[in-house]
Structure prediction request, 244 residues.
Amino acid sequence: MNKIKILFFATIKDKAGTKSMDLDIPSEMTIQQLKEKLATEYPNLKDSLKAILITINREYAFDDAVIPLNAEIALFPPVSGG
Amino acid sequence: MTSPLRNLYKMNFPTIYSITESEIDLNDLLEKITLSSTGAAAIFTGMVRGVTSRDNPHETVYLEYESYIPMAEAKMKQVAEEIREKWKSIEGIAIVQRIGKLYPKTPTVLIACTAAHRDTGVFEAARYGIDRLKEIVPVWKKEVGPNGEEWIEGDYIPKAGE
Prediction:
């Protein structure tokens, strides 16, 4: 098992109803598989997951990336700073 | 000019990047990125606009900014590195984003670049800095108006390695 931390920001935080959570995932899980798991367990997030940015350890990551051990994952909408 | 002395000097070119809840102090930042060889600074600052007339006209009571701070600061550093890669003439760089609840007329972001002269790409460098910040630095704003609130979302999808 792999113990990861997931952070949520902006609209995704509101939909998840929390800023962060710790999650145990199987080792070798990909971002795509994590999205599928979240969509099943948190139906509120399902629609948002289609157009979401994801980072692994503070770098942008994509569906086929394998989640490393003890990763810090973040989910958020396209950024709107300035 | 690529003498060893010049290279040593370049290593000490100041780069400031931060997410802050405090007021942005332009004079302080400008002083920090001004060297004895500096003769020009291009500064962009954005502020909260209370009345918008373009596109979708509306009024703004305040904006509430949030950030994924450690990643945002790392990405600001990356933006500064990209600027230095594109414009070798740039001396100092300051990139600051203020977060929290910010009211109309309040400066929210500042990008400043300094160089020896104004015709060195310094204007373009500052422009690039704010454009890149709006693409890859994880900051979001919620707009609160007279009739409710709404998260503003960007439209840029970063590519691998960005």
In short: Residues 22 and 81 of chain A are 27 Å apart (CA to CA). The helical segments of chain A are 10-16, 31-41. The longest strand of chain A covers residues 2-8. The interface with chain B takes residues 7, 9-11, 14, 53, 55, 58, 60, 62, 74, 76-82 of chain A (CB under 8 Å).
